[in-house]
Amino acid sequence: MFQPSNIIAGLLFSIIGIGAWRYGKALDRWKPVAIGLALMIYPYFTPWAWVTWSVGAALCVTLWFHHDV
Question: How far apart (Å, rounded) are the C-alpha atoms in residues 44 and 7?
Fold first, then answer.
């Protein structure tokens, strides 16, 4: 669980999640807030690096398409 690639992925996606959460809170939009929270929380529950990177990439793509809806 404490592999460097997993730690880097968790840190990267958590920073993106904080940005998405703050963006959603500032504009009062629930989708970026929810995706931001998911980006911040999910790395704690993924045991393998490939799962962390895959889920993070999927959530970032979801955020890209739902950031202004």
Answer: 10
